[in-house]
Amino acid sequence: MAFHDSLTGLANRSLLYDRLNKGLSHAKRRDAGLALLLIDLDRFRAVNENLGRAAGDRLLKQVASSLNTVLRDTDTVARINNDQFVVILESITLIDDIAVIADKLLAAVAQPLVFQGLEVNCTASIGISLFPKNGCTADELLRNADIAMYRSKILGKSGYQFFLDIMTSQGGNGLLLESDLREAIERGELRLHYQPQINIVSRKVVGVEALVRWQHKEQGLLTPSLFIPLAEETGLIEPLGEWVLDEACQAFQRWLKQGIDFGRIAVNLSANQFQIEDFDQRVAHILESTGLPSKHLELELTESIAMENAAAAIEMLNRLHNMGLALSIDDFGTGYSSLAYLKRFPICKLKVDKSFIRDVDSDPQDAAIAKSIIDLAHNMSLEVIAEGVERIEQSLWLADKGCDQIQGFFYAKPMPEDKLLLWALNPDIACSSQGGVYINKP
Asked: Is 1 a member of any domain?
């Protein structure tokens, strides 16, 4: 049986388990400490996709060599996955000592690689688990280090996190592993919740935004902030995003057949989705298979996604626009839109980020920003929607300043489909007619 990785020469998974089990036996006998560090390269897939596998292999070899320069002869470093490495530190107990080594490992990974005249920069996220505090078996330590590593990625990448028990609670980011999420998509554990978007003058529901949730088998209902970063990092955002789009279109078509017209269904796009060369064809296929008329679909993308490659974005947006669906810019005001490009995007709406709405009725700066966005949109013949409206004072301020649409907890929280339909048909909340759904709330 082979015990070394053929590309890097490091220990492989089999040898890692052998050494880890021996190290744990030694630590138990001597009442000593042991630390396991799981190192995951950030955005390694982008290196392979943009520069080719040869560049990725060169980078892996350099990282392996650099890691070895940091460690003692008694330490073990292994490559266990495409872009994942594991370090075993034996006879070590002080957190500060482990942190120093983690910093050195991050610095080692960050050494730039020159490939065909291009400088390739790499960072890593590290999760750390300790014996006996975080586990007494190899599997427990690896699993908890994995959890801590993904927590590190969510907090901004290029760093390390020690495992904490709270990370296995719903609020602490749970047991969110790549395998869990992959199985969730396959097993149908994802759910859509829908939040109404309301015309501020007519009180008509002009749209609902589809928001994904994960009905985790152990932790219950998880919000996107707890698993979307993981999906983006692992490449699962593409199948997840396609599922959301298909499910949203199916749901809206069901409602239309029941005589309930919410105007449009708004779906958020990820950067990965938007960069797919035939994304417009995939959207067309979903519309055809679900039977949903394109006028009922709205796609939302953030400023940063649109501006990452503005020329390509304009081309894709034009293709989508020509299909007859609506396009909007989400979280407007938080990115770096160039107005020269913005006027060339075939969009119909700007969504003011909720960070500017929170104190819009009391903070002069937020008020000035929100008013500027409303005026900018109207001067460009675009509609404006404000998200995060939770108080009547915010709603009244937005109405006074001419905002077109509002969305937020003050009117309705995101709801599963059955509750959304009950909400729409509840005469104390709304009235439904062939012309649409209107809310009764002031």
From this structure: no
pLDDT digits (tens, 9 = 90+) for 249-291: 999 999 999 999 999 999 999 888 888 889 999 999 999 999 9
Q: Is the same domain home to 331 and 420?
A: yes
Residue 147, classed as helix, strand or coil, is helix
Using one digit for the tens of pLDDT, what is the confidence trace for 15-33?
999 999 999 999 999 999 9
183 and 315 both lie in a single domain: yes
Own/partner contacts of 270-274, CB < 8 Å, gap of 24 or more, are 270/228, 270/232, 270/237, 270/238, 270/241, 270/305, 271/232, 271/304, 271/305, 271/308, 272/232, 272/235, 272/237, 272/238, 272/241, 273/237, 273/238, 273/241, 273/242, 274/301, 274/305, 274/313, 274/316
Are 143 and 234 found together in one domain? no
Amino acid 177: pLDDT? 63
Number of domains in the chain: 2
Considering the domain architecture, whether residues 272 and 406 belong to the same structural domain is answered as: yes
Tell me the pLDDT tens digit for each residue of 112-167: 888 887 788 889 999 999 999 999 999 999 999 999 998 888 777 788 988 877 66
Residues of the domain holding 225? 175-432
364 vs 110: CA distance, rounded Å: 42
Confirm whether 158 is domain-assigned.
yes
Residue 309, domain member (yes or no)? yes
CB 317 within 8 A of CB 286: no
Cβ atoms < 10 Å from Cβ of 219: 19
Residue with tokens 């404006």: 384
Specify the residue for token string 């482990």.
98
d(CA 76, CA 3): 13
At 435, is the pLDDT very low, low, confident or very high (cuts 50, 70, 90)? Answer: low
The beta-strand segments (E) located in 68-188 are: 76-81, 84-90, 113-115, 118-120, 124-131, 159-162
- Asked which of 167, 185, 203 is the last residue of a domain, the reply is 167
User: Do 275 and 297 belong to one domain?
Assistant: yes
Residues 253 and 351 in one domain: yes
Rounded CA-CA distance 332/334 in Å is 6
Residue where the block lists tokens 């980078």: 59
Same domain for 213 and 67, yes or no, is: no
203 within some domain: yes
Task: Give 84's DSSP letter.
Answer: E
Q: Which of 325, 345, 342 is nearest to 333 (CA)?
A: 342
